[in-house]
Amino acid sequence: KCPTCRGAIGSTAPSYAMRNIIDALPVSCAHAPRGCEEKVKRGDLETHAATCSFAEVTCTHAGCGATMERRNLKAHVAKCEWGLVMCRCGERVPRGKLEKHKAEECMKRMVECETCGTKRKAEASEEHGSGTARIGR
User: Fold this and answer.
1) How confident is the model at residue 118 (pLDDT cuts 50, 70, 90)?
2) What's the start-to-end Cα distance of the chain, in Å?
3) Which of 65, 73, 102, 109 is paired with 58 by a 20 to 30 Å CA distance?
4) Nearest CA to 38 among 51, 56, 22, 20?
5) What are phi and psi of 13, to 5 degrees?
């Protein structure tokens, strides 16, 4: 029914002209409560939301799952405990597990031979233990 005269409306087809007028109206971003002050055309709202600095996003590192505003993501990713860093042995390890890796798993760590007490890199300890390594004394 027509809101003015309450008569029947003849067509239910969408009015593209009216849609264009409505889509051109300025509206606030859905993230305005978080601080976004952008006024965008209603028709561009979806595009803006995909890049809005105040939108909530999840850390990109597998295992993390932390959520923050998009504007804080870069700083978080740079120090995230789940971000992969290169160990001196060439292995990529989560930042938060690097110290444990260096102390317990890294093939470049120094280990002591249980037989003779000499210290050498873990990567050479297997060869040393087999008696094939040259031991300089």
Assistant:
1) confident
2) 102
3) 102
4) 51
5) -70, 145
